[in-house]
Amino acid sequence: MDGDNVAEVVTGEAVVLEVPCARFPSRVIALFIDLVIQFVLIGILLGIVGASAGGSGLDAAAVAALVLTVLVLVLIGYPITWETATRGRSPGKFALGLRVVGDDGSPERFRQALVRGLATVVDFWFPPFFGVPALVCSLLSDRGKRLGDVFAGTFVIQQRLPARRGAAAQPPAMPPELAAWASGLELSGLTDASAAMARRYLARLAELTPDARAELGERIAATVRGQVGPPPPPGTPVPAYLGAVLAERHRREHARLMPPGWSPVPASAPAPAPASAPAPVPGTAWTWAAWEGEGARQGLPGEPSEPGASAEQPARATGFVPPQ
Questions:
Q1: What is the pTM of this model?
Q2: For residues 51 and 221, what is the distance between their CA atoms, to the nearest angstrom?
Q3: In this structure, are strands 154-158 and 98-102 parallel, antiparallel, or unpaired?
């Protein structure tokens, strides 16, 4: 599989996310690491069984039953136990930065880990085709699924990617009108999943139709409002609200990690808005049309730029256009 292969996952909130599928070489190396651990465990347990059988005088049938039990517990129970306890990560997958997730991007559940573990008998241990079914199915699937993934409704993602130059995502900009309000937010209840949904929504804002933008934005904002307080000023557009929440969350996390006295403002930071810029009045009915018009003036991706727009216009300075 291609190292840049990604899969589109539709979450339970109807949000389309792009996740990187695990590369075939990475899965082979992870499998090799797990097999080494499994064979070491089998050797240790079979040594214990042999020592016990010699001292207790067990017959050949009892010894064979014990050997079969050891093989089943290690070869099948090992992946089930690890993937259930770690939500989709065995030691080999952890070493390679892989994780098993559901087809909707949700964490792997016990039922799925059980199906995957039982399917290893067909995938890897069914004679005389050791590993051939898993290899063929993985190469034919666009997500690299083996038979166990097909049966369980899962696939393997590359959770930890090598760092790439310039690949770090830029934090959202704080709307100046909401900076004072955002400084008093209670963000401890905001989950990573909700923040990721909001970030993905803002990144694709220019690609959405107005109806989809309004509907999806309101659903994501409702989720965030249930985890963050206090509510935004009346009439705040959804993109501005979500952008302010994410920007404040990023600022606090950055401040927590930075040493005392470090200034997060780079030397090339833009100048603050002029003092004469009009401030929003509580209760002002900001509209989607105003937000979209400002986005067009700032040259958002996919939006036409307005010729002759001046940098001194209040709309550019404040980010909002209250109705006159």
A1: 0.51
A2: 64
A3: antiparallel
